[in-house]
């Protein structure tokens, strides 16, 4: 019992530090975050306290209002922090791969299955919706990469639906902040065993980055393909 309490106490400073760090990062992109959170908390608490006085239970409604105020502040903070994070990631190479890593359970992501010298890149995700190819970079060049990757996969997984998305802000493109939602809305057509079989076949096919270490998060802007490495698609 004592060990569990000690572990919990040790974890609390870490959580608080993480929240503080997230707040600082969010405030850089969202200068009004402090005022917004304060307004949400005060208004929520004030409404419940006023109702409490009207019905003759100010203490009970005041406590409830305080708890709900913290909950409302947490929800608003989470959404604005997420929006700020996407804003900072927008346009950075490898940003789509970072989003794909957090789509959710049931999806297997393989970053950079195709890339050219201009650092346009295609990532692959496999789930019950089938195969999703996500391209980022110049739309005209990315379309060529997507077409080449789909043609290569057609020989291996011809019976699996393939969806292709291009991350961006133009027409027929998907905004980075909407990428996860767009993927989760795709119709589920494969069973669990079919997803596993598809992943196995694709792994056997190999990919561009199979023998290259890829750091997590956005790729460095100065990244270049090594000479003598795999041929570019």
From TrEMBL:
Keywords tagged on the record: Membrane, Transmembrane, Transmembrane helix
Superkingdom field: Bacteria
Spans traversing the lipid bilayer: 33-53, 59-78
Region annotation Disordered: where it falls in the sequence: 210-233
Compositional bias of kind Low complexity: 219-233
Name assigned to this protein: DUF4191 domain-containing protein
């Amino acid at each position: 019992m004592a060990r569990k309490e000690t572990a919990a106490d040790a974890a609390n400073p870490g959580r608080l530090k993480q929240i503080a760090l997230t707040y600082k990062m969010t405030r850089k992109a969202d200068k009004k975050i402090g005022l917004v959170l304060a307004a949400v908390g005060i208004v929520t608490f004030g409404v419940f306290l006023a109702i409490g006085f009207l019905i003759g239970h100010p203490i009970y409604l005041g406590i409830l209002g305080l708890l709900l105020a913290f909950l409302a502040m947490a929800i608003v903070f989470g959404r604005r922090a997420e929006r700020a994070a996407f804003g900072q990631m927008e346009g950075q190479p490898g940003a789509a791969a970072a989003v794909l890593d957090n789509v959710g359970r049931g999806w297997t992501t393989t970053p950079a299955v195709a890339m050219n010298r201009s650092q346009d890149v295609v990532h692959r995700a496999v789930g019950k919706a089938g195969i999703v190819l996500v391209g980022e970079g110049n739309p005209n060049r990315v379309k060529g990469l997507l077409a080449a990757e789909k043609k290569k996969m057609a020989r291996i997984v011809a019976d699996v639906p393939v969806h292709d998305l291009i991350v961006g802000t133009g027409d027929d493109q998907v905004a980075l902040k909407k990428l996860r939602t767009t993927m989760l809305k795709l119709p589920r057509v494969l069973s669990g065993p079919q997803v596993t079989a598809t992943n196995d076949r694709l792994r056997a096919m190999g990919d561009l980055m199979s023998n290259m270490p890829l750091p997590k998060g956005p790729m460095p802007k100065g990244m270049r393909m090594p000479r003598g490495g795999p041929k570019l698609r």
